[in-house]
Amino acid sequence: MLTDYSRIVVAYDHSALSKKALKMAMNLAKQDKIIELYVVMVQQPLRPAPYSYGYVYVSAQEAQREEIQAIRKDLEEELNSLQNKTGTVLLEGNPGQMIVDYVRQNDADLVVMGSRGLSGLKELFLGSVSHYVVQKATCPVLIVK
Ligand SMILES: Nc1ncnc2c1ncn2[C@@H]1O[C@H](COP(=O)(O)OP(=O)(O)OP(=O)(O)O)[C@@H](O)[C@H]1O
Ligand SMILES: [Mg+2]
């Protein structure tokens, strides 16, 4: 049954629930070496603050890029503890759409993600990204809460 899900994608935004989703996906992958695991992070383009000068915007973007590279390096180290084929993927654009496109283009069998993410609002069960992916993904979605 697990090998039906032999290519797993984790949608990762560095929130507590996405960390939990990663742990769960890694535990699934440990069951069988044949399972491949890819961690997908989608960077959203920063909106320039009103009246900000060009270089302020560029340095904010640069800071964001450096932070993401540091997170990515840590993720890769963590993934290297598995015997499975693994990878990290950095995409740019609308997170929900990019995750759904990635899953379709790479023929993934399962997406693992958190119910909520970085915005941390608790009123609704699903955030906008998890809501979108559940609706549009071409494969099953495991929502971690
Ligand atoms: N930029 C992203 N890249 C990859 N995965 C993401 C991204 N944003 C969210 N996710 C995934 O979606 C899950 C749910 O996050 P979501 O963004 O839907 O909720 P939220 O941040 O609480 O609310 P919202 O963003 O709608 O204000 C996260 O736990 C993570 O697994
Ligand atoms: Mg969010």
Topology:
Blueprint lengths: L6 E5 L4 H15 L5 E8 L10 H26 L6 E7 L2 H11 L4 E5 L13 H9 L4 E4 L1
Parallel strand pairs: 1-2, 1-4, 2-3, 4-5
Q: Any overview of this molecule?
A:
There is one protein chain. The mean pLDDT is 93. It is built from four helices and five strands, in the order E-H-E-H-E-H-E-H-E. It has a single domain (2-144), classed as Rossmann fold. The protein is of the alpha/beta class and 145 residues long. It has helices spanning 16-30, 54-79, 95-105, 128-136; strands at 7-11, 36-43, 86-92, 110-114, 141-144. Strand 4 (110-114), helix 4 and strand 5 (141-144) form a beta-alpha-beta unit. The site of magnesium ion (MG) has 5 residues, from loops.
The low-confidence parts are none
Distance between the termini: 23 Å
Oligomer: single chain
Structural class: alpha/beta
CATH architecture: 3-Layer(aba) Sandwich
Total individual domains: 1
Strand-residue proportion: 15-25%
Comma- or semicolon-separated keywords:
145 residues; alpha/beta; Rossmann fold; 5-stranded parallel beta sheet; binds adenosine-5'-triphosphate; binds magnesium ion
Short description:
The protein is an alpha/beta fold and 145 residues long. It has helices spanning 16-30, 54-79, 95-105, 128-136, and strands spanning 7-11, 36-43, 86-92, 110-114, 141-144. The chain is built from 4 helices and 5 strands; from the N terminus they run βαβαβαβαβ.
